[in-house]
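note to self — DONT lose this again. spent like an hour looking for the file last time. sequence + predicted structure for the chain T wanted, 184 res
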Amino acid sequence: MTHYAVFLAVTGLPTGPVSGLTALTVPAHRLAEAEARASAALAGLPEGAGWADLEPDRRRELVARVRTVPHHAADHIEHNDPAAPGSSALADCLAGLAANSSLKELAGQRRTVYFTGDRPLGDAAGAPFLAGASAVHRGAENRYPALARLAALLGTAAGPSTDGSLPEDQDLYEAFDRYTVGGP
C-alpha cells in the first residue's frame, strides 16, 4: 500500500471565510525529492506572489519547471455556496475534494496531511478525510516549505485555469499528469 503526503492550502483571507481548498498529493517515498525539485522550480519567485501577478514568460517557465516535481495529483475545489447550518466551508471543501477529485482514490490509502498556515480547523477536524489520515499537521511551510508554497501557488492559479483565460503553456495545472479544478 502506497503512503501519500497531501498538502492542503486554503484560499481566502487568513481570518476570513474559506473560498477554496487546494491539494497537492505526493507519494511519501518521494517526499524529499519532491521538496528539492519544488524548491528549485520556485527559486526566484517573489514571496507571496500569486499566479496572476506573474508575467506570461515567468508563468511558462514555472509550468515547465514544476513538471519535474514528483506528484500523484493536484486538485482544487471552490466553495461557492454559503455553508449549511452546522457545517463549515473548510469541512465542505474537504468533503467535496474527497468525493470529486483524485483524493477519492486515497480513501483507503495511508496518508499524512499537511495544512499550510495555521488556520483553525474547527468543524473540519472531524472530516472523514482528515479522521482517516495517519497524521494531520498544520504549518506545512515549517516542514516542507517549497511544497507548501507550491500548493498555495496552485490555489492562486485555480481561477485562471477554471475560466480558461490562459493558454495551456501558462496554466500551472497543466504541469501535472492528473488534476481536477472546480467546485461541487
